[in-house]
Amino acid sequence: MTATTDDDTTAPTDTEAPGTGRQRRLSVAAGAAVLVAATAMTAVLGWQVLQLRKLDAAGSQARAAATSYAETLTSIDSSKIDENFTRVLDGATGEFKDMYAQSSGQLGRLLAEHKATAHGMVVESAVKSATPETVEVLLFVDQSVSNAAMPEPRLDRSRIRMTMKKVDGRWLASKVELI
């Protein structure tokens, strides 16, 4: 057996240099701060990507609706005027819908009187600006037009700026301008 001395029973001595514990705590705190900042930055960037995707989706949906609506708006058969006007009004909202509804009676009489027909086709379209609820679309439309005085179809080319608004989940034309 060995005898123990007072030196053997004393607590182990701390071999760390003075201030090392403090440095470790500062390093851990700095690492945590970097981790929090990186997490916050990732969240912000993720949110921005989500917003861009929402805008892109809104633009794509509104552009498709505007393309279809432009073809409805620029196509008419004088033997089906009421049906044509109903489809046009169904795709419109706001001021444009009100204006079209007010002028459709007189326009219908003129179209029927001249036995007019037209067929519109969107050649190209693009989103000019977009928010989640409002999208401005530019459209290039070719329209073949004929009537009793000119039975041979004539091609008209139009540029249209159409403002689409999301109403109850549907994209509707709120403003239509020839440009």
From TrEMBL:
Main location as per UniProt: membrane
Amino acid composition bias (Low complexity), ranges on this chain: 10-21
Subcellular location: Membrane
Keywords: Membrane, Transmembrane, Transmembrane helix
Region span, Disordered: 1-24
Single GO cellular component term: membrane
Superkingdom as given in the UniProt entry: Bacteria
Transmembrane domains' residue ranges: 28-50
Protein name per its UniProtKB record: Mce associated membrane protein
Natural source organism: Mycolicibacterium conceptionense
Phylogenetic placement of the source organism: Bacteria, Bacillati, Actinomycetota, Actinomycetes, Mycobacteriales
